[in-house]
Amino acid sequence: MAEQATILLVDDTRTNIQLLAGCLKHDYRLKIAMNGQRCLELAQHSPYPDLILLDVIMPEMDGYEVCRQLKENPNTKHIPIIFVTGRDSDEDEEFGLKLGAVDYIAKPIRPAIVTARVSTQIKLKHQSDQLRNMALHDQLTKLYNRHFLIESAASKLAYVDRHGNDLSVLMIDIDFFKHINDQFGHHVGDRVLKAIADILKTGNRREDVVARFGGEEFVVLLEHCSLKSAVEKAESLRAQIEALEPMGIAVTASFGVAQLMKHEQTFVELLSRADAAVYQAKDLGRNRVVAAEDEYNVLHLDKKTV
């Protein structure tokens, strides 16, 4: 049985909320927000909405501003928005659609129109999610792929530029992986990759991006995360991988860690420093974490004696 879709209803008038809820409560899971700020909060908490029905005229923060902020946030930009409003001129509708809304329902609310429009957008959302999932995930490990990582990193860098939060990256390279493939076969190597992927995606926050970068390399992009916290996470993952021993095979990994610096404008710059730190970890004996302090120096964190 398919899980019910979740719809977030946003209106500062309780009567309108009740009317919308009456139309939808039997077919969907509902979340309620009475103002724009609450909408922004609920949109990022489980169960995550599959669709937002958003009033335009609200005090403090109107629906247009809420829509802008939702579309700017990488975590919420793919949630479809239907404006539900008494503003029904062509200019109002055009403005709302240009902001990123997928549809526009005029008040007074007509139940048949609401249910039909919502049903259409929920079907489109599910189809879009399925296609996006296939296009942006690695087939073997089910982690995000390189394409999604680069796309997501660009959005996160833009968000960091506006809001000034920390952004760090972990680069992970499995030690002597070619030896595993040569000795046990590629089918065993694939099982090792999947086992490590399961460790990497356990315990991550929704805003973190865990991706298979290629071959035996993985990248974890950590939003709101300082270099110190990223190093601690890397060390925890390193220890878990060392203890894993899938199919009785000893496996370790080398980690490079870097935090975005103020002058860095691209993900390539950040990732290059993490990559250099991985090479340093390899040179120092593998199975360890090395953090890049800046573009010129790496800090060896000798938390593991090999």
Automatic annotation (TrEMBL):
Keyword Nucleotide-binding annotated: no
Any single GO CC term annotated in Swiss-Prot or TrEMBL for this entry: plasma membrane
Entry's Gene Ontology BP terms: cell adhesion involved in single-species biofilm formation; negative regulation of bacterial-type flagellum-dependent cell motility; phosphorelay signal transduction system
One protein family per Pfam: Response_reg
Residue positions where 4-aspartylphosphate is found in the record: D55
UniProt-listed Enzyme Commission number(s): 2.7.7.65
Matches recorded under InterPro entries: CheY-like_superfamily, Diguanylate_Cyclase, GGDEF_dom, Nucleotide_cyclase, Rev_trsase/Diguanyl_cyclase, Sig_transdc_resp-reg_receiver
Gene3D superfamilies: 3.30.70.270, 3.40.50.2300
Domain of life (superkingdom): Bacteria
Domain GGDEF, first and last residues per copy: 165-294
Entry protein name: diguanylate cyclase
Organism listed in the record: Shewanella violacea (strain JCM 10179 / CIP 106290 / LMG 19151 / DSS12)
